[in-house]
């Protein structure tokens, strides 16, 4: 949303166009003066208002929801595009909002948009929210847009200052709601109301017979149209026709019931002498009732989805609504729960807020922990939580848990996450991991055998160098003992062979197979997703030398088959795909290799592309594909990693709060000196962190309350020295090119900066554009590549 500068010079407009139903806006006027601080890769005319990034289009079941691909991360609203690239970053300060009050009924969102256009403001209809008070005499319109100057410019218009008309005032503009598998969703409400009913009076000449028939109705033995009814009486003298008769009164009789339906279950010998039926409690059909209730809920805010009640058995109609915003769902409960129905003043509408959490996990993980989850079902049921496991789709299962108490849902969600996360295999406080665990060789085959024999799942988390065990605890303990013994026997180290175009071609034509045949399958790991591509040798220096000789000299390649393999081979590891993932571009991956590919693409600073056909495919993987093939935890990790990498490349614009472990972000001002208005955006130079409340100067990005930027730099020199000493003690160095802090955990002295991609000699911090020259430099200048050997676990 942007402000048309010419709008302020027009003649003052009346608020007449707000009254009545103005048709929908055709073409929105061009936006002028768009906030220039946004990522320039996003076309200006593609930037939407407050709901553009919060709408979720439903495709049926909860397991099929379509994402909006926005996340609130570190206090920023982050938009993602295909390939998991960050397309736009917004902050709370980028939004502004106004409220136009005292508007006549029936004001609509489209009529407000019409007025805004006439005043020179191009605003999507989704940015307008109409609120109606209880008396329905006047209403107000809240307009929130992504333009920090909108409220200031709009409220300054003469038409908004008139005392004889509605007025506009600035209001707080919170961040739009986003979706996230890691948050508890509170946007759904369940609505229910009584079906239209009648009252029936049954007159009897004998009190005992009346009491006997009444007890049968009360016990549910006698029913009306196969539905239980409530019975009162018998009483005498209450009949409308015979003041001496004994009368029972039946309540909640179905609307369609006739006299013969009331007496159908009563034997002839006990039949009443007279039956009288009232008119129905209300006379509105179900489609109209659904429409009226939906209209009521819309007063609280826009809906993402409405599921009107179907015709159903039972005494109540039941409908569901999903709002775009959590706050609107809570407002709906506040406004309409236990309030009269819009079509029946004597009936009440029940509106219950429902909290829900969803987790998407691999089917093989679910199968391993299904019994452990089942052990918690009874406790969840006692808390009135509904747990659902949807059928598997593409090797994944969606688990959902819902309830009316948010903290119970959050607690159950945490329990589920702990179960499906498994237990990291540890010894002496450290994760058990050796290089051969990453290869598909002997160690891997032993793991698969343990899985089959013990009925457990062993997850190789190559990114974190961890093994996670899932399944019954006694069997996992047995597997852990065997895996620790396997790790003890491994004395290998990791050697890296980076492949240029010619070397990769050599590897593809048989070199990789030749290396595996020469030193063993369990010692060779192919990393085609990295940049540059590389082969990892998990073995001795002698194994490393053999691999180099084969790949550089071609020895043994002619005897090895080409790596083209079969159509079922993984495009990453060139072996038969385990738990295969099939992409739309007709390539196959192991589920684990696909996840590694995604993170490798993000960590390289590029978008995620298919590496099929030996890396020649290059098709950008769409977000919907990532959502379909990744678990919810992996998907959220991926998006958060993509944003973190994006931040390292935009440190001139995006900054973290300086408070340790705070994590909140803000947009830097990039100006020298203070001003009351930073770059004409209406934003002050101070960022008040919403998490820790520290005031940070957005010009020099330091908290220095009461001091100028220059004074702060002088006083902080001692702090910088302390930071330098701490980094030296911990072995942390700054990248010579981009300045990001780097820590070496294992391997040789060839380092690659994850932020800028430069290759570094860890000894002298000299930089190189490619990886191979680093090894020549280290051997020549430092007498070796600095490989550290890991003797295994004691």
UniProtKB/TrEMBL annotation:
Residue ranges constituting the RING-type domain according to the UniProt record: 566-791, 570-611
Source domain of life: Eukaryota
GO terms, molecular function: ubiquitin binding; ubiquitin-protein transferase activity; zinc ion binding
Recorded GO CC terms: ubiquitin ligase complex
Protein name as catalogued: RING-type domain-containing protein
Pathways per UniProt: Protein modification; protein ubiquitination
InterPro entries per the UniProt record, alphabetical: IBR_dom, LUBAC_E3_Ligases, TRIAD_supradom, Znf_C2H2_type, Znf_RING, Znf_RING/FYVE/PHD
GO biological processes: proteasome-mediated ubiquitin-dependent protein catabolic process; protein linear polyubiquitination
Zinc as UniProt keyword: yes
Keywords: Metal-binding, Repeat, Transferase, Ubl conjugation pathway, Zinc, Zinc-finger
């Amino acid at each position: 949303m942007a402000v048309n500068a010419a709008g302020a010079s027009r003649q003052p407009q009346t608020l007449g166009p707000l009254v009545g139903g103005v048709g929908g806006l055709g073409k929105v006027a061009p936006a002028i003066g768009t906030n220039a601080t946004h990522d320039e890769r996003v076309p200006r005319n593609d930037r939407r208002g407050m709901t553009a990034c919060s709408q979720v289009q439903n495709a049926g079941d909860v397991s099929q929801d379509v994402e909006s691909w926005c996340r609130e991360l570190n206090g920023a609203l982050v938009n993602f595009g295909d390939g998991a690239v960050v397309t736009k970053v917004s902050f709370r300060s980028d939004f502004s909002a106004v409220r136009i009050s005292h508007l006549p009924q029936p004001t609509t969102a489209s009529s407000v948009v019409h007025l805004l256009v006439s005043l020179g403001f191009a605003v999507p209809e989704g940015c307008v929210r109409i609120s109606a008070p209880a008396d329905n005499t006047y209403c107000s319109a809240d307009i929130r847009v992504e333009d920090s100057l909108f409220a200031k410019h709009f409220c300054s218009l003469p038409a908004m200052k008139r005392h004889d008309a509605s007025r506009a005032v600035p209001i707080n503009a919170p961040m739009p709601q986003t979706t996230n598998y890691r948050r508890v969703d509170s946007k759904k409400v369940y609505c229910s109301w009584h079906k239209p009913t009648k009252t029936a009076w049954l007159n009897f000449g004998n009190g005992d017979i009346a009491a006997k028939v009444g007890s049968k109705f009360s016990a549910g033995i006698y029913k009306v149209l196969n539905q239980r009814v409530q019975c009162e009486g018998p009483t005498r003298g209450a009949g409308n026709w015979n003041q001496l008769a004994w009368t029972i009164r039946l309540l909640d009789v179905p609307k369609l019931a006739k006299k013969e339906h009331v007496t159908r279950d009563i034997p002839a010998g006990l039949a009443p002498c007279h039956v009288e039926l009232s008119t129905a409690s209300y006379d509105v059909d179900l489609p109209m009732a659904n429409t009226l209730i939906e209209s009521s809920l819309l007063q609280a805010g826009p809906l993402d989805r409405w599921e009107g009640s179907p015709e159903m058995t039972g005494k109540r109609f039941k409908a569901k609504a999903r709002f775009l915003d959590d706050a609107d769902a809570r407002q709906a409960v506040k406004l309409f729960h236990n309030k009269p129905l819009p079509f029946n003043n004597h009936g009440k509408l029940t509106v219950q807020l429902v909290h829900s959490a969803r987790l998407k996990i691999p089917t093989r993980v679910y199968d391993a922990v299904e019994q452990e989850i089942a052990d918690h079902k009874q406790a969840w049921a006692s808390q009135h939580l509904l747990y659902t496991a949807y059928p598997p789709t593409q090797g994944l299962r969606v688990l959902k848990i819902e309830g009316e108490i948010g903290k119970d849902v959050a607690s159950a969600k945490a329990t589920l996450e702990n179960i499906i996360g498994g237990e990291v295999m540890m010894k002496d406080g450290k994760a058990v991991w050796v290089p051969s665990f990453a290869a598909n060789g002997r160690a891997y085959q032993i793991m698969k055998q343990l899985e089959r024999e013990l009925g457990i799942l062993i997850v190789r988390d190559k990114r974190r160098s961890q093994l996670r065990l899932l399944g019954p605890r006694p069997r996992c303990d047995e597997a852990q003992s065997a895996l620790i013994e396997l790790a003890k026997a491994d004395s290998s180290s990791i050697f890296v062979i980076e492949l240029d175009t010619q070397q990769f071609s050599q590897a593809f034509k048989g070199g990789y197979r030749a290396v595996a045949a020469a030193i063993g399958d369990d010692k060779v790991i192919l990393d085609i997703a990295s940049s540059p591509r590389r082969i990892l040798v998990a073995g001795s220096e002698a194994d490393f030398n053999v691999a180099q000789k084969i790949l550089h000299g071609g020895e043994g390649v002619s005897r090895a088959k080409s790596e083209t393999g079969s159509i079922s081979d993984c495009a990453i590891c060139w072996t038969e795909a385990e738990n295969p993932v099939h992409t739309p571009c007709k390539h196959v991956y192991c589920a684990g290799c696909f996840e590694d590919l995604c993170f490798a693409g993000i960590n390289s600073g590029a978008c995620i592309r298919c590496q099929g056909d030996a890396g020649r495919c290059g098709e950008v993987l769409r977000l919907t594909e990532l959502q379909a093939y990744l678990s919810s935890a992996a998907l959220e990790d991926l998006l958060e990693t993509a944003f973190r990498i994006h931040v390292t490349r935009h440190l001139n614009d995006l900054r973290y709060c300086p408070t340790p472990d705070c994590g909140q972000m803000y947009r830097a001002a990039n100006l020298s000196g203070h001003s009351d208005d930073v770059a004409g955006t209406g934003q002050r130079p101070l960022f008040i962190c919403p998490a820790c409340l520290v005031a940070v100067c957005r010009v020099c990005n330091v908290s220095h309350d009461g001091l100028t930027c220059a004074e702060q730099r002088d006083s902080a020199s001692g702090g910088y020295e302390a930071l330098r000493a701490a980094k030296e003690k911990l072995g942390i160095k700054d990248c010579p090119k981009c300045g990001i802090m780097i820590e070496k955990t294992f391997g040789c002295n060839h380092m690659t900066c994850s932020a800028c991609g430069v290759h570094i000699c860890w000894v002298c911090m000299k930089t190189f554009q490619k990886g191979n020259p680093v090894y020549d430099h280290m051997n020549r200048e430092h007498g070796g590549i600095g490989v550290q050997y890991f003797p295994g676990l004691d």
